[in-house]
Design brief:
about 0% strand
Length: about 80
């Protein structure tokens, strides 16, 4: 028959006095600050990408309208319409 393994070991007085890493708090602070900065940067880049999309779309539409107007003008001039 299988025996259950002991999952926890009883703590003695020596194991409770484990020294903590003195720089762990500072590292955690820098890590979370970097995460917040990265999140803010992603948000700014997302907004800028939306603005760039609309600017490029507007410029493309204006160029298409100008080319269409010039083309129609040339067609009228050549065929005398």
């Amino acid at each position: 028959m299988a025996h259950l393994a002991q999952t926890t070991t009883p703590l003695t007085g020596e194991e409770e006095d484990v020294p903590l890493d003195p720089e762990a708090v500072e590292r955690a602070y820098r890590f979370h600050r970097a995460r917040r900065a990265a999140k803010a940067k992603r948000h700014r880049e997302k907004k800028r990408a939306g603005v760039r999309f609309w600017v490029v779309l507007a410029v493309t539409v204006v160029v298409a309208v100008v080319l269409a107007a010039r083309t129609l003008g040339e067609i009228e001039r050549v065929f005398g319409l």
